[in-house]
Amino acid sequence: MQNLPDIINGIPNISGWESELFSVTQNNQPVFLPKTNINLPQVKAVFAIALHLHQPTIPAGQNGELISNLQYMFEHPNEGDNHNAPTFANCYKRMADFIPELVANGCNPRVMLDYSGNLLWGLRQIWGGEILENLKRIAIDPNYQPYVEWLGTMWSHSVVPSTPIPDIKLHIQAWQHHFAAIFGWEALARVKGFSPPEMHLPNHPDTLFEFVKALKECGYRWLLVQEHSVETLDGKSLENRHLPHRLIARNSQGEEISITALIKTQGSDTKLVGQMQPYYEAKTLSRQILGGVEIPPIVSQIGDGENGGVMMNEFPSAFFRACYEIKNNGGGKSGIVAMNGTEYLELIEAAGCHPDSYPTCQPINQHLIWQKIALENCTPEAVSKAIQELKETHHNFHVDGASWTNHISWVKGYENVLSPMNQLSALFHQKVDFLPEKVTQEADYREALMYNLLLQTSCFRYWGQGMWTDFAKEIYRRGEVTINKLNLWVEK
């Protein structure tokens, strides 16, 4: 298939090749299995680390242009912690240096990378895209493919529970478009795991169902899930957090769908990854039985790849130290080993495991909803009534989902941003939903989609008030203007 431009008329390539995306991402051939050098029967336990990297897009260029917050940091070094800009930039490119060095020295490293669409665009904007070109080494070069797994995510780092349902799949596809345009279709075909921004899993039945449905329609096989954001089907804490699970999603119509989930364990995420705690935890574990098959358990963990002193300063030495220690104890191919998520799942399934045998889970507090509703009587009205009753009788009950920590809600208190966000989304869909599919190739559509998705960036809600809310208001204003002048494309 044709190579794609990653920038079109100044806008990132986030739409227009939906049919090509489908043909590429629905390929179910093994990704890592043909190339893995790990001998599963000789592995005692596994750990997997992922690095989440993101910078928001803001209307803060010299003439109000959309730029990366990273660029703003470089241009305003005396504000806040903006002096960290060079360090952040180094963090965005350093894995493209670390992995080749470790491989050249006989190590068998593994790392999963989660780059938001905002960041990918921002890295194209600064230094002529130098960092992106460096990253191509570990995204495209066959010599390094077994060691690095790229994870998909929401293009504009929107937290799923507060993302308008019609936009969930648009975010997922926008990221796939953008990634394929930068790194190529073959690289996209290898992206089978998904990393939800802020590890925020929706627990409203309809939102969760649409999220999982969109993931599967976009070719994803598994997603990373925070341990305390899920429960067993009878409402208990997970007993086997070091085994893959099957996340069950049932909507208010009684329809059910599921997807494999790797469980990210609780804790101070950045410090755990920065100090390679997953490796040391894996050293305390032994093989377990799953569906009648003996396999190594997996410790899964994700943390910011650049944020905080631990990741900036301590992670490189801890990562190298762990890799060399593993090299000296089994060569990184037996004993305690690093693996990536898709590699692990492909290996255990080749050994005889099947997703149907994985322990099941659902989002936190959903058992309270389903206790009130018989499956044969599941209707939107019944679910809505159950949720309202639970809010009245359980003061901690909500359907906002669960994030990095249970005490943070990404919904309550931010209505001043969420309301315009929903309004812009509704305006966008009123304009485009009844147009032919080819409208996604039009420049006007792509620009309108961009503003719609940009407004949903979590950073604008995280900060709540002040400069970040002002950025959101300006994006809303531009989005409204763009959508209102959208040329309604009609097939001739």
From TrEMBL:
Query: Which terms are listed as keywords in the entry?
Result: Hydrolase
In which domain of life is the source organism classified?
A: Bacteria
Hydrolase found in the keyword field: yes
Report the CDD domains cross-referenced here.
GH57N_like_1
Molecular function GO labels? hydrolase activity
Write down the PANTHER family for this protein, in alphabetical order: ALPHA-AMYLASE-RELATED-RELATED, SLR1535 PROTEIN
Name-wise, this protein is Glycosyl hydrolase family 57
Species per Swiss-Prot/TrEMBL record: Floridaenema evergladense BLCC-F167
